[in-house]
Amino acid sequence: MHEYLTNRGYRASLNANVLSGIGDSLYNIVFIVYASQMPFRTLAVSLASMAGLLPSLLAIITGYLADETRRKVRWMITARLAQAALFGLLAVAIALPHSLPLFIGLLAINIMSDLCGQYANGLGMPLLRRLIPGNELNAAMGFTTASHTTVQIIFQGLGATAIVLLHHNYSVFGLINALTFVAAAAVLLNQRRVLLAAQPPIAAVAAPRVPMRRSIPAALRFLVTQHFLFAVILIATAFNLFGASTGALMNVTLLSAPHLYWGNYGTTVALLNIATSLGLIAGSLLAHDLFAKRPLMKLMAISSALLVAASAAFIWGGSRVLILILMPAFGYMMGKINPRISAMMMRLVPEDQLAKVSGVIDMLALIGAPIGQFVFLGLANLLTPSAGWWAFGGGAAVLLAATLLVDQRVAEPALPDDDAVTAAPERVSDGD
Fold first, then answer.
1. pLDDT of 259-289, one tens digit each?
2. DSSP 248-262
3. Is there a contact between 262 and 320 (Cβ–Cβ < 8 Å)?
4. What's the number of CA atoms in the CB half-sphere (13 Å) around residue 418?
5. Alpha-carbon span 348 to 270, nearest angstrom
6. Fewer Cβ in 10 A, N or C end of the chain?
């Protein structure tokens, strides 16, 4: 929060991302509603759900393009304006009569917008590294995570309500989305001078760009040489494998466990999801709690133990109070871990490879999610929910053992308080 209040560059970057996130959160839920009203609604909802995965699969490519872009501030603003133009086009097209070609065209617009947003986020990473002092980076990343999670919770619910109040006028939502992206570009443009001061220097004679076929393998080789960071990324991928399955496995289990209900099935699912999200927000915001100085692998070990405990609670029909405590506790630990990983990556990875490495992490996380859901949900449906939880708990126990082993074998790098930021420009306070 301190950096947000005093650092104009960081505040502008976060505000732009939050405004873009508002548009994305509103649109994602509204477009699912739109898809459900198509004559081919089963296919439409499936395509709409799958379309969100494609940008993450291409994250390493947008990361390469972001790293190779020299005038980062200019293209950050351009990317947000491009998103606004795309949603302006969508607002017109979505009013046309329903057809499969039109629906695929609308999906393509959404995917292109997500790719532009991903590209803009990659462009901003080197700027954040130069804008935020090393000893404040973890707290700043935590505040960013909390902001994005809060936006998703509020505006997905708001979107589902507002589309009904607006009598399913999807064109209006397209225009609202376009305005959020225009506002994001305006925020960046307003603080353009501060952001330009943090932009990596552009050589008078531009060095030749490294081809993608050499640049991406070079970034991967660098990542492998950073033993602790590489181990963290692999373990975080495994966490995503379990984390992406927890909610779905919980939903299946609750269908046949009315003794765990808080009121009814729908209320219980919503309550557990909200509690987990609130735990994530609290963990991200409370940067100076008793876990602040704990080694990262120790935090991951605690999170693994919570996953084992959650599986045991569902296997043996534990109390609903215990489950309601364990889910936000896991969310809280994720709120501690994710910003730490982001901050470590930003301080260890060269700034000209930040977006590519971030793309690798996004791609690995995406790969882990469907694997976990296929295994655990497959067992729950073919056998029993308890079988899914037994496999889940056993896998989480293996992850706990692996985390403890890495903690013993690979030393966490000591990061100085003022790492690469020593070369950063002086921050501009609100009083200037």
1. 888 877 767 877 888 888 888 888 888 877 7
2. HHHHHHHTT-GGG-B
3. yes
4. 3
5. 38
6. C
pTM of structure: 0.75
Domains of the chain, residue spans: 2-200, 215-409
Q: Residue 61, Cα to own-chain centre: how many angstroms?
A: 17
Using CA atoms, how far apart are residues 87 and 31, in angstroms rounded to an integer?
12
Rounded CA-CA distance 357/100 in Å is: 37
**Residue type, position 139, single letter:** A
Cβ 145 vs Cβ 338: under 8 Å: yes
Longest dimension (CA), the chain: 70
Tokens of 146: 């909390």
pLDDT at 428 over 60: no
Fold of domain 215-409:
Growth Hormone; Chain: A; (1.20.1250)
Question: pLDDT tens, 78-88?
Answer: 999 999 999 99
Confirm whether 2-200 and 215-409 share one CATH topology.
Answer: yes
pLDDT higher than threshold 60 for residue 426:
no
Q: Which residues contact 139 (CB under 8 A, 6 or more apart)?
A: 1, 2, 3, 287, 288, 339
The DSSP letter of residue 403 is H
CATH of 2-200, one of 1.10.3720.10, 3.40.50.970, 1.10.760.10, 1.20.1250.20: 1.20.1250.20
Residues 118-167 have pLDDT tens digits of 899 888 888 888 888 777 777 787 888 888 778 877 776 677 677 777 77
DSSP class of 207: P
92-119 CB burial, b ≥16 within 10 A, e <16:
eebeeeeeeeebebbbebbbebbbbbbb
Q: What DSSP string describes 60-74?
A: HHHHHHHHH-S-HHH
- Closest by Cα among 126, 57, 152, 47 to 345: 126
256 token code pair: 């046949």
In the three-class reduction of DSSP (H, G, I as helix; E, B as strand; rest coil), residue 245 is classed as helix
